[in-house]
Amino acid sequence: MTISLTWPQILAWRLRRQFVSGPGGPDxxxxxxxxxxxxxxxxxxxxxxxxxxxxxxxxxxxxxxxWTDRTLAKTWVMRGTLHLVPSDELPAYCSALATLRFxxxxxxxxxxxxxxxxxxxxxxxxxxxxxxxxxxxxELVDAxxxxxxxxxxxxxLSSGWGVLLKPLSRLGELCYGPPRDGRVTFAAPRRxxxxxxDALPPHEEAGVLLARSFLGAHGPATPEMFDTxxxxxxxxxxxxxxxxxxxxxxxxxxxxxxxxxLLALTEHLDELAATPPSGExxxxxxxxxxxxxxxxxxxxxxxxxxxxRVSRQAGWISPVVLRGGRVAGVWEPRNGRVLPELFExxxxxxxxxxxxxxxxxxxxxxxxx
Length: 369
Hints:
- This protein is α+β, with helices and mostly antiparallel strands.
- It has three domains: about 5-95 and about 200-275, no CATH class; about 100-190, Arc Repressor Mutant, subunit A; about 280-365, no CATH class.
- About 45% of the residues lie in helices and about 15% in strands.
- The chain contains 17 helices and 13 strands.
- The strands form four sheets. It has a four-stranded antiparallel β-sheet. A three-stranded mixed β-sheet has the order 1-8-9.
- β3 and β4 (about 80-85) form a beta hairpin.
């Protein structure tokens, strides 16, 4: 028998699972673990994504976790975008993502102006070039040229080189190190992150772990939704099918209010069924996982008429106003103030409270990294 759930129930459950409502997460690492990473292309958005979910926001906590405790890692993972992920889970992310070796495709090499031999040389040289301490971009380029003896790689790395390093992040050979004099540095995970394994886990094991974690925060969902979140919708179908087949004994089908058949972790069924729709109002920053973990075309989350205001050009995801887990508006920060623009009616007292909370967090938790 298939269990029926409404989307307001599902969204209210996600709010609680993602620490948006309820008591909040205990620390930045626990929040990143539950969310399956925190996107950090915009550092201030990542800081706020953690702060709005924290039981007790701690200024500087993310920097401490990244550069002192090294319990968080910063690197390119889901969809080729920068994320903060727990260091002990990064090997699993790398193993799963490395099942799609996009850099070996001729169309990708042509699009980024490199040959197969050049990208192969970079992939082989960077692990040798990353020594005991983190290095700056310039130092890494110099070291790669020295390792390979190919001065032409300097031009390739200097022109589109952020993209050219993404294969190394997926292979578990590169992550960010602490900034040095305002400049980005890179490190070898095996030397930088405590407890790094001798080899990445098998992708079958890693994929199941990631799918389970995803459904635990962004479910119920479909394999295609998971694929869109992890790979951008281009996973190898046989690999994706195998992960969900192996996870199958832990899953139950549920039917959403719009007729979609979704998969939920069986252990969460009772909690899902008992969750009432929420009327709570929350403000979330740009690039928030609550939005990124779902398809942009999910109308129960983002009304179709305002999709372009939320999911904008060049992959930009706006800060949002949520009512009951549904996008009811967007907002922008300006000189420490929050300026909301509503698409749907929102109770004024609840909105004022949410705005005041975020303004206080913006003032108390300045951008780091």
